[in-house]
Structures are given as structure tokens and as C-alpha cells.
# Entry
Amino acid sequence: MMARIHISPKPDILDPQGKAVNSALHDLGYREVSEVRVGRYITLEIQPQPGQDSRARLEEMCRRLLANINVETYTIEIHEG
Amino acid sequence: MMARIHISPKPDILDPQGKAVNSALHDLGYREVSEVRVGRYITLEIQPQPGQDSRARLEEMCRRLLANINVETYTIEIHEG
# Structure
């Protein structure tokens, strides 16, 4: 199965990278843009062993390694097959 | 309207960041994981001016600034309202 993980800065946290992209887009003439937020998008293949709860383990991976839960939120989608 | 942009390493391109994450997950005991790819996830608000083609302009933003089209692919989703 395949998992897709989105990691984004929390809404109330400053996002310096998003601010920089916003500013660069304005400089290029794209004035219609605002509120740019830059996060990460991680895909992975999972071959679960018998008895493994893939979603619970992906939650663990996010909390332990992939996301900084102090300043980021994450969502996990699992696609079978 | 809101736009969501996914930028990922092309399938045939090495992804050193994905390899590093894969290896770190294995070290933590998540041996069921493989094929990790790390991309970017960008959200932005758009207030199109009359006559502007938002999708065409988002494509331009991706090609000119947001993505490196030599080694990355991107997808654009637009959500009205």
C-alpha cells in the first residue's frame, strides 16, 4: 500500500519560507497571491507485517521523525494496493 | 479561491532526502517502509483579477519559481470559495 503524508506549518505559526515565496511571487507580478504556506509532501510504500496497524505506525513515524508537532500539523492518507 | 500545489522529485530522479528519511525510519524499526519520496506542499490564496486565468498563472508560477522542472513534477488543484 502507499501512504501520502502532508506536513504543514500550524496556522498560527509564522512561516518564513511561505513569506519569502509570497514576496517573490509578488515581485514577479503575481499580485493576486496571498497567504502562501510551504509544507512537505512525503510518499512512501508500506508492506505491513501481519498484525501491524499501519495507520498507528504512520502516526508514530510522523510524531517521532517526520513532523515537528510543536509547529507543524500532519495528515495521513493510505491508499490500498 | 485556494490553490494546493504538490511538487515531487521525478520518478527517475534520485531523491537524497527521501533516501535519508527511509534509512532513518528503518533505524527506528519501521522496516515495512520503502520508496520514500520527499516533496513540497504549497498552499496559497488567490484573488484573481477580472480576465485572469488562474490555472494558467499557477502553471507559470510553478515553472518560473516554485518547481525545478528539470528534476521535479508538480500538480495544481484549485478550490473555489
